[in-house]
Amino acid sequence: MQKQRLVIIGNGMAGARLVEEILAHQGGDQYDIVVFGEEPYGNYNRILLSNVLAGSQDSADIFINPLAWYKEHGVTLHAGSRVDAIDCTLKCVYASDGTVMAYDKLVIATGSSPAIPALANLYTPERKLQKGVFAFRTIDDCTGMLDYATQARKAVVIGGGLLGLEAARGLLNRGLEVHVAHVAKHVMNVQLDTMGGKILRSSLEKMGVSLHLQKRTNAILGDGQVEGLGFEDGSTIDCDMVVISTGIRPNIELAQQAGIAVERGILVQDDLSCSVPDVYAIGECTQHRGCTYGLVAPLWEQAQCLAERLTHPDSEKLYLGSRTSTKLKVLGVDLAVMGDKEEVDEDDEVVVYSEPSRGVYKKLIVRENKIAGAIVIGDGSVTPRLLQLFDRRSPLPENRDELLFQLSGESKEVNVADMPDDTQICNCNGVSKGKIVSCVKSGKRSLKTLCDATRAGTGCGSCMSQVKSLLEYAAGDALVEDPSIHYYVPGVPLTKPALIEAIKEQQLRSVSSVFAALAGGKEDPGSKAGLASLLKTIWGKDYEDQRDARFINDRVHANIQNNGTFSVIPRMYGGVTSAKELRRIADVAEKYQVPMVKVTGGQRIDLVGVAKDQLPAVWNDLGMPSGHAYTKSFRTCKTCLGSEYCRYGVGDSTALGINVEKRYQGIETPHKLKLAVSGCPRNCAESTTKDIGVIAIEGGKWEVYIGGAAGASVRKGDVLCVVDSQEDVLLYMGRFMQYYREQARYLERTHGFVERMGIEKLRQILLEDSEGICQRLDHDIQSAVDSYVDPWQEAHAPATPAQFANVLQPVEQVAAL
Amino acid sequence: MSMILKTGQVTYNLGPLARLPHGEGRTFQIGTHSIAVFRTRNDELYATQAACPHKGGPLADGLVGDGKVVCPLHSYKFQLATGASIGNTCAALETYPITLSPDGDILLSLDA
After folding, report:
1. Whether A145 and A193 share a structural domain
2. Which residues of A touch B26 (CB under 8 A)?
3. Is B44 inside a domain boundary?
4. Cβ within 8 Å, pair A815-B10
5. Are residues A627 and A770 in the same domain?
6. Is A817 in Cβ contact with B9 (below 8 Å)?
7. Which UniProt keywords apply (chain B) (predicted)?
8. What is the pLDDT of residues A721-774, one digit of tens each?
9. Residue A748: left if φ>0, alpha if ψ -120 to 50, beta else—which one?
10. What's B54's domain CATH number?
11. Sign of torsion, CA A615 A619 A621 A627?
């Protein structure tokens, strides 16, 4: 196929990011990519310019892709070359260096310029800014300011917005006396409400920045060199350096002259196309649904969307606008703002905590039980959670104070940034911090791509939160949220509730029909087992079983070992066995020369190292049902002796354990369920660290715990309820199981699920029936119980050809040359 | 679909297609060769070496879909057609020519 030519005007953060995204989609095979950049450099992270100004980073460190990178990736960069005109009819662009370049597709990413106010005496006769006056936008501006600052004494920053305060911080660090003149009543008035502005002001003043509010600058004073500023109210201030930071203006002139529709910015549709065919625009130069953006996150979302559109002609991906949030340090003060700064609707709930003496201010705007906006000043510890709740539009806990304060019980997180590079993060796959960080720097900026590339977090998963922190630390604002983390399985782009709805609505009863209807026929092997589990939960006995969708363990009903053999664990209800059963197990072990016989952590006996083709005979000789020690389902219910023999026992734990197991054996769940029943509060069966645990207490009562764990993660379960009878234990257990089956993500253990839902909420749903679903849950778990069939019965009737064969032989040799 | 037999290759009849279930693989032992043979849900056939290069896992027991196989031991992924490893540093799998005869038998060719 002939390659098309893709021309990108602008090599700033948007243009450069688009190139990266297109290359990530293998777009280099489809397009000759040509980039025009006005600045004579590779591209750099403009956001970090304030760090360069402050001296905390060197200008060499903020380059993302040096010139050589473009060459390596087959991208033609015209650095230092400005595009002067676009001809949309002839489909070509004209550059200042004389180049005329035809395009098949054109992307305008011309960014924005500082909006310079009309001040008297601002320019020299040559239309240059007066000596000592700077705009703050490019690396050259930054270098110019740094040179000049060495001999300056007192600087005034015009504009108390985000960038203005960053500039003030930089100059303060360079030892200058710094003033900020701002036209509004408080600084950062776009992002902050009045109270927040006041609190930030006093923090800034403590640090030595003098603020001049409600001051509109109208003149530069001085002749041949700046000597001061004049304000509209007639007052003046003397200074020898001025930085103008009064907002940005989208660069639309080029597009406008080419006849492309513009308003404040270049108008783009949801597919990021402009008013002219084959022309697109992204970044700060655009106006989408009435909004222009000056933050980096929207620009990256636009680049991602457009890259997908350009590389996949049938893509229907849309950019629907961004909810902006920002987290930053202004002069060392932690500040985070997201969404609305004031209440909008009458029903909006406003939660405020204000402590001016410490410079702490926290405000939440809650709408429909979700965060519609938040301001946090002076307490970075609560910000990550708020940002997450905001981004994902998650429902909030009833106690809003949990959101605004770090609970005293929470252990302080180890700061990943402080760890040495050789610290091992993933203890399953032996992945170090250094390896993770360098992988992020090489472009794996979403959790999924990072984990796929390094294998970190792909073992037991307990290091996932640290991997996530490292990703955030190493990627900073460049972090890419992978939408698939919200999907039930990675290969079907739907959340669990949406997936269940689609499955029910379209009556999809097999895994292949789900792929055909909801994933464009693409059968992602990593999604098959999760879908099989869900379909079984939804349809019960009406589920159309396709064996290839099962993991090998579930095809042969045994757990695969590292040498390809299997382990066989027969069901031993409640961990109670008999001499007869033990004798039979011993006979089987001898007859089949089982290499290892092992007592398991769940009070069972494991025959380890059985060949696949021996499984049916082994099951047959055992004459016991499957113990399900190989699948994502109810596994075991461990018990202590209990009241029948133990002198401390207050409840018959073995009898209850046996009943629990007889009832719920083999029920499929999103992840395995390990249960226990203890006969007294001494808790010898360790019920408090089980997925569901029961403890007998004095007075004939039973405590039911849920969400405990003592494996890769350790968590003490929460008490769901205290009941009077064994029947009620079974009832609430089953109700919780069914709710977990319906609501949890695939491979989400109960400890994560209970933590995520909150025990209060679960009690409301499962005990008080707040959603009116208890009766249905009880009914559905009963159906699952009723449809249980012991899978080891397949010993007598294999489900697929050669189901238990170790190896097959050819029929004949047919030809040789 | 016809197979061009090259000099120095031997072709084996592995039996009728129905020996393999839809969407699964089986291991065949042909002399000293252990070979994983896969039948996708839309009846494409693939043959690769039987053991995963990572830790020797039985690839025929893996999940198959979208032209890929996932090793059952540690979820290492490979392309069925080319044997190329996906997202891991393992060497590519050996692959073997495989086709269906006009009579519906599976034919696999090996170097003699």
Report:
1. yes
2. 802, 805, 807-808
3. yes
4. yes
5. yes
6. yes
7. 2Fe-2S, Iron, Iron-sulfur, Metal-binding, Methyltransferase, Transferase
8. 999 999 999 999 999 999 999 999 888 999 999 998 999 999 999 999 999 999
9. beta
10. 2.102.10.10
11. positive
